[in-house]
UniProtKB/TrEMBL annotation:
Signal peptide: none annotated. This is ABC transporter ATP-binding protein. Keywords: Amino-acid transport, ATP-binding, Nucleotide-binding, Transport. PANTHER family: HIGH-AFFINITY BRANCHED-CHAIN AMINO ACID TRANSPORT ATP-BINDING PROTEIN LIVF. Belongs to the ABC transporter superfamily. GO terms for molecular function: ATP binding; ATP hydrolysis activity; branched-chain amino acid transmembrane transporter activity. Pfam families: ABC_tran. Residues 2-233 form the ABC transporter domain. It comes from the Bacteria. Gene3D superfamilies: P-loop containing nucleotide triphosphate hydrolases. SUPFAM superfamilies: P-loop containing nucleoside triphosphate hydrolases (SSF52540).
Amino acid sequence: MLKIENLYVSYSGIEAVKGISLEVPDQSIVTLIGANGAGKSTTLRTISGLVKPKSGRITYNGEEITGMEPEKIVSRGITLVPEGRRVFPDLTVLENLKIGAYLRKEKNFDEDFRWIYDLFPRLKERSWQLAGTLSGGEQQMLAVGRALMSHPKLIMMDEPSLGLAPLVVKGIFDIIKEIHKRGVTILLIEQNANMALRTADFGYVLETGQITMSGPGSQLLQDESVKAAYLGKKPR
């Protein structure tokens, strides 16, 4: 579905991403783990068209989308749930959800609302509440719901559990699995490497802009260097 080949991205002359290549197969969950500043968010922002790459190639279902404008990428079925949620605080929950469908030609949202409110009952309870007054977990639910309103085939999530309580984190990962069951492909960046690798079919480890390791999520969970660096476990 999504393929990145030899991607380089620079900010003010400093290389943030250094020649990475990766693939996200159709209807899979793929995770990208690494320390802060490794280039994970830059990678997602480049795929979504918010950042222009220095060089390299990004293709989606065989079509090159490298450097394409963000709205054209969304219209092709790729959407991003950004780090920090980025809801519109002065709009209601319902208005935020409708913004997610802005590029859709068909404007009958009843079925979408039913699905999203089924996934996130709290959003239904607060549909007329201003988004800025929601809790962090509720805002994350809203950010995911807003992304789903665009009818994505591939949804990219940037640190969905950041700053959330453990019980809320578990709920978010349950939702990720449920979205995947609906046939949506997921590319996940996550600080909670343990949860990410347990959820993902395949994982990549990104260090200082380069992929240093890859493999099935279950395999990376057992790797001693991954345990030491990202799972808080000392190597044997």
